[in-house]
């Protein structure tokens, strides 16, 4: 079983999906990506999750993020399930769902935790950068649905901190002040952060979010 850690290159794979065959790295292209797994088709929590993701498609697209789901059931099962999702969640599924009957991708990404279930995947989430590196890993139990507002918040933080010398504090939301990296000296701050800053402690310096007008 593979172990994937932050900063690793996301393993590539080819798989069948509801939108045709996918070569994962080619499908991602220069986009960021979310790969997330579901214990099985026709399960209640997963049905609400996939419907929610469909409704968030534009928010992910604004952030240059592609979304792909996975379940260990087959394509025909997926297609019938998509009809149920569209009907019950009042939406249209607009992203691919991988059919992983041989559990190849599930095992590649360590999505099956035998002490939880020997057959079904846990609710894994991998956020992958445009450099194909793994930026975030969250694992939920099968019984707990994911918070996609939190995933958007995290992606905003990941993209901000990837391109600016800042970090985001607890409960940060897009538009709020951020923390200046400890590696930045006070002398460098005026050039890097012309909006100004507040020194709470020598190691805790706050500045307005730098990528907003």
UniProtKB/TrEMBL annotation:
Gene3D superfamilies: Antioxidant, Horf6, Chain A, domain2, Glutaredoxin
PROSITE patterns: THIOREDOXIN_2 (PS51352)
Pfam families (UniProt xref): 1-cysPrx_C, AhpC-TSA
A Gene Ontology BP annotation from the UniProt entry: cell redox homeostasis
Keyword Nucleotide-binding among UniProt keywords: no
InterPro entries: AhpC/TSA, Peroxiredoxin_AhpC-typ, Peroxiredoxin_C, PRX_1cys, Thioredoxin-like_sf, Thioredoxin_domain
Thioredoxin domain span: 4-160
GO molecular function list: peroxiredoxin activity
Keywords: Antioxidant, Oxidoreductase, Peroxidase, Redox-active center
GO cellular component assignments: cytosol
SUPFAM superfamilies: Thioredoxin-like
Keyword presence, Oxidoreductase: yes
Residues at the active site: 46
Assigned protein family: Belongs to the peroxiredoxin family. Prx6 subfamily.
PANTHER family: MCG48959-RELATED, PEROXIREDOXIN-6
Protein name: Peroxiredoxin
Organism: Aestuariibaculum sediminum
């Amino acid at each position: 079983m593979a172990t994937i850690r932050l900063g690793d290159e996301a393993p590539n794979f080819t798989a069948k999906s509801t939108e045709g065959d996918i070569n994962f790295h080619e499908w991602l292209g220069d986009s960021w990506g979310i790969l997330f797994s579901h214990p099985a088709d026709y399960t209640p929590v997963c049905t609400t999750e996939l419907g929610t993701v469909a409704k968030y498609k534009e928010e992910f697209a604004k952030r240059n993020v592609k979304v792909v789901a996975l379940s260990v059931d087959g394509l025909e099962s997926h297609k019938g399930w998509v009809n149920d999702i569209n009907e019950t969640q009042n939406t249209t599924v607009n992203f691919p769902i991988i059919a992983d009957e041989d559990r190849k991708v599930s095992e590649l990404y360590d999505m099956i935790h035998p002490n939880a279930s020997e057959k079904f995947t846990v609710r894994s989430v991998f956020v992958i950068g445009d450099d194909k590196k793994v930026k975030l890993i969250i694992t939920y139990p099968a019984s707990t649905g994911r918070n996609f507002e939190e995933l958007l918040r995290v992606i905003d933080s990941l993209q901000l901190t990837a391109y600016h010398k800042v970090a985001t504090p607890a409960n940060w939301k897009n538009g709020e002040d951020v923390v200046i990296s400890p590696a930045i000296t006070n002398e460098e701050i005026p050039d890097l952060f012309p909006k100004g800053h507040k020194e709470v402690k020598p190691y805790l310096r706050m500045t307005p979010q730098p990528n907003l007008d």
